[in-house]
Amino acid sequence: MLSTVTKSRSVATCVRGFASSAIAYKPKDAQQEAKRKLRREQAVKQRNKQAPESHPLYMTVPQAMRYLRAAEVGQPAKKTTVSILMTVLPERGSKPLAGSVYFPKPIKESHVMIFSLQDEKVKIAKELGATHVGGLDLIESISKGEIKLDKITHAFATPEIVKDLRAIARQIGPKGLMPAAKKGTVSEDIESLMQSSVGAYPFKQKEQHLSIPIGRCDFSDEEIIKNLKAASEAIYGLQPPGTRKPNLIGQTCLSSTLGPSLVINFKKT
Question: Which of 64, 90, 172, 197 could share a disulfide with 262, CB 3.0–4.6 Å?
């Protein structure tokens, strides 16, 4: 009996000793892991600080587009998407990049409808390429079903005609085309409304990456470059000179739906 008790005590002592020794090593392991993590982060940051021209997959935009178009042969050009994917390394306390970019060459076709009782505004809207423009005559045509609304992507109005739109609320409301001040689709400045809404693409950084579609394979090199420049100005414009903790915008790749990812100089596009 005594021998059994003695054995039990000795086993318990060994278990306690093993547990305490394991706990003693944990802080060292945690410190080593923290150092390894810091080294990995520094290595990633150093890679993303290097000039894109030094990367083996670097190409100018026209060169990259030749490869991307070749990769999309046999695909409908209008269904291909050319995008940029960049690495964004945030500093402690910095905010994720988020905003909108206004493309000179919109990626998706837009069909705009403008309601106004002002002849001058109607004229401006027509010059800017609105699909349907008018006042009470346009409202009446919609009410009678003479105008198809399936392809309309945006609808704007000047303030004086808003009350008259109630007559066609059932036709345009369910399609999300009812102009409203709260939605920012009612204004005297029709020109700004069209320019800021048509062709605008919202973007937001997710973790350490930011992806934005900037065109299609049927866009010319010049159109792709102009859209890239607009995206570059929008993203770098979020971090004005003198920002204490800017995000590090690192390697940027240009790719298509089926094509490879090719490194470009996004900042100097």
Answer: 64
Per mean pLDDT, which range of 16-30, 111-125, 142-156 is the poorest?
Answer: 16-30
Q: What's the number of CA atoms in the CB half-sphere (13 Å) around residue 66? A: 4
Separation between Cα atoms, residue 132 and residue 136, nearest integer Å: 12
Domain count for the chain: 2
Where in the sequence is the domain holding 170, given as residue range(s)? 112-197
Residues 125 and 184 in one domain: yes
Last residue of a domain, one of 146, 171, 197: 197
**Quick one: tokens of 178?**
């009812």
Using a pLDDT cut of 90, give the percent of the chain over it. Answer: 52
Decide: helix, strand or coil at residue 255: strand
The separation between the first and the last C-alpha atoms of the chain, rounded to the nearest angstrom, is 86
Grouping H, G, I as helix, E, B as strand and the rest as coil, residue 146 is coil
Domain assignment present for residue 13? The answer is no
- Give yes or no for a contact between 132 and 152, defined as CB atoms under 8 angstroms apart: yes
- pTM of this structure: 0.65
Mean pLDDT of 60-86: 94
CB within 8 Å of 104: residues ≥ 6 apart:
199, 223, 226, 227, 230
